[in-house]
Design goal:
There is one protein chain. The radius of gyration is 19 Å and the shape is globular. α7 (about 190-200) runs parallel beside α8, α8 (about 230-245) runs parallel beside α10 (about 275-305) and α9 runs antiparallel to α10. It is an alpha/beta fold. The protein is built from 10 helices and 12 strands. It folds into 2 domains: about 5-215, Spore Coat Polysaccharide Biosynthesis Protein SpsA, Chain A (Alpha-Beta Complex); about 230-305, no CATH class. The strands form 2 sheets. Strands 1, 2, 3, 4, 5, 6, 7, 10, 11 and 12 form a 10-stranded mixed sheet that branches. Strands 8-9 form a two-stranded antiparallel ribbon.
Length: about 325
């Protein structure tokens, strides 16, 4: 059996109603001549998702997980099963647009590119941007580039290097995922893509924003934005990103600005009655700080591995986009 060019991995949990437009968009916009496989990872759904996929989309490979392991575990299971040279991770509440595959795969002609960020539009209002790639401010502020901005501002952009790609629709080089280990399950389902973007950069890979690759996303249809548990997890994960991933010189320089930023965040959270889950998340992070710091050894090993491959830029150079594209998000973040 020949190896497909692209594997589209769709993790889902009780998302049968969301899957129909997602899978139909893949069927409708599938490029002629592209060897593509679609993998649906059913993460212990109780709404008949697996049966529905088998009956209505037999072209999709179906993986059933028991018990529910969360987004990262489901994504990793799909990635492990994928046979493609490249992998696209696609949310069950997202739809691809015409020409998405060709535009998303084109930047991989450069062997240094490990991931590609599509232009993700808001499905209910495609004139607005959900994400044009991810940004990360050195003092600990992950955010979506272009979030809430008019789409025309980004549709006219040229392809450019960015920090990372949103996992709602990111393309990855399969080899790069194998080198970096995929998603860290400890993140659950928030900022896991930012952590992976850091590790890809430590391994010497870059990320490219491809404005001609368009995806429409029903923004966080699978999340309850008012959930205290979600805000607690976001607060914990933001610290995991900061202490595990920043190069040591940046970490030393950013420690004081980071603490100041936490004060600003706390004031904002308190004004929105979200201070308690925020503080609980930071307390969780303090308890895990030794583990976060031990994780820095893994990043150092990725950098040493990259040093053996002269095609890749080393040192701080692969990380430079981490502060190049900081944008103001809609809210104060986690």
């Amino acid at each position: 059996m020949s190896r497909p060019t692209l594997s589209v991995v769709i993790p889902t949990h009780n998302g049968r109603s969301l899957l129909a437009p997602c899978l139909e968009s893949l069927r409708r916009h599938r490029p002629e001549g592209l060897d593509l496989e679609v993998i649906v990872v059913d993460d212990a759904s109780s709404d008949g998702t697996a049966e529905w996929v088998a009956a209505h989309h037999p072209e999709a490979r179906l993986i059933r997980l028991e018990p529910n392991g969360g987004f990262c575990a489901a994504a990793n299971a799909g990635i492990a099963a994928a046979r493609g040279e490249f992998v696209q991770l696609l949310n069950n509440d997202a739809e691809v647009c015409d020409g998405w595959a060709e535009a998303g795969l084109s930047p991989f002609a450069d062997p240094r590119v490990g991931s590609v960020a599509p232009l993700v539009l808001v499905r209910s209002d495609p004139s607005r941007v959900d994400s044009a790639g991810d940004s990360y401010a050195f003092f600990g502020w992950p955010s979506k580039r272009g979030h809430g901005q008019p789409a025309w501002r980004w549709e006219r952009r040229r392809a450019e290097e960015v920090f990372g790609a949103s996992a709602s629709s990111a393309f990855y080089r399969a080899e790069a995922l194998r080198r970096t280990g995929g998603f860290d399950p400890s993140y659950g389902s928030y900022y896991e893509d930012v952590d992976l973007a850091f590790r890809l950069r430590w391994a010497g890979y870059s990320c490219v924003f491809a404005p001609d690759c368009r995806v429409r996303h029903d923004v966080s249809a699978t999340y309850d934005h008012g959930s205290p548990a979600l805000h607690r997890r976001m607060a914990r994960n933001a610290e995991a990103l900061f202490w595990s991933n920043l190069p040591l010189p940046w970490l030393a320089a950013a420690a004081v600005p980071h603490l100041a930023f936490l004060g600003v965040q706390l004031a904002w959270k308190a004004s929105h009655r979200r201070a308690r889950p925020f503080l609980e998340g930071k307390r969780d992070a303090i308890a895990e700080l030794p583990r976060f710091l031990r994780g820095r050894r893994d990043r150092a090993e990725l950098a040493r591995s990259a040093a053996a491959r002269p095609a890749f830029r080393l040192g701080v150079a692969p990380m430079r986009a981490a502060v190049d594209h900081v944008r103001r998000p809609v809210g104060a973040g986690a």
